[in-house]
Amino acid sequence: MFMQRENKDIRAAALSLRGRRACYGELQRLGAGWRLVNAQEFETPPGCMTGGHISDGARLGAFLRKQIRWGAKKLPFVLGIPTSECLYQLISLPAANCDEAREAVKWKFSEYFPFAHEDALFDVSEAILPVPEKSGITVLAAAAMKKQLLPLFDELSSSSGRLCAAEPLAAACARALTPPAAYDSGAMTLLAFCLEETAQFVLLNGGTGLLFRSCVLEDSAFTADDVRNDFKNEVRKTLDYAQSRFGCTPAVAYALPERLKGLADEAAGQAETAPVSISPRHRLEICKPAEEDWYDVAGLLLRYANEDGV
Length: 310
What we know:
Structural class: alpha/beta
Largest sheet: 6 strands, mixed
Strand content: 25-35%
Shape: globular
Radius of gyration: 19 Å
CATH topology of the largest domain: Nucleotidyltransferase, domain 5
Helix content: 25-40%
CATH superfamily of the largest domain: ATPase, nucleotide binding domain
Number of domains: 3
CATH architecture of the largest domain: 2-Layer Sandwich
Number of helices: 8
Order of helices and strands: EEEEEHEEHHEEHEHEEEHEHEEH
Distance between the termini: 31 Å
């Protein structure tokens, strides 16, 4: 049975490809704030998503295009793709801004990624280091193979919605979950959270991303102890990277399911830890049937909530 739709002041939509499930929601203006409404959830067809990756984008896109109850014709929407679909590189360049840095990465693309620029979709975002470079700019570059994503994009582009952007789910979740203190320059934070069978890790400084990682936690051959040990090891590895690369140990902020709660504290050692949820500063209300752990869909929608004219 479908819930009654909210149709007033719908501004945009978001679609998150978590793995076994895809989650869809729409952004509604509510006074000075926002609501996540008209949530829908789908089991993805077998063979379309495997081990945290898109394995058959054309079939997945065709399925979702038919299943989603789009709120309005050509409603703009953003797509959240698995974090593991992209490779990431932290690059310091003698550039003045992100536009110049993007061009510089393009011309030396093969030095940073194991495929040609012509075969890739890529973008960069500014990264604030704990100790900034004396000149130039540091960016986090993300790149994915066109052949992996374009069949999915092509199918979704022929839907009733209007595909406007795509981004890794780790970036979307970080937008929703990042605690206010993490926006202070020099305040490094490791954000740890789970989306279905994957653990996700985002290393932040000054509110900007320095590292995105994900790993599969669940498999039919895994035991509960395997999952817990793997998660703790991944937290420790990320903390060790931060210490060796930047010379400091970040605080750990986490949003975890019940079966993994407490593991962040065990793995973090002497690092400060704290649970996080969708930040109240976003003024975003989550409406049923969506749950509070829909921070992936919330983060995707907040792209629009933070833009003028939406």
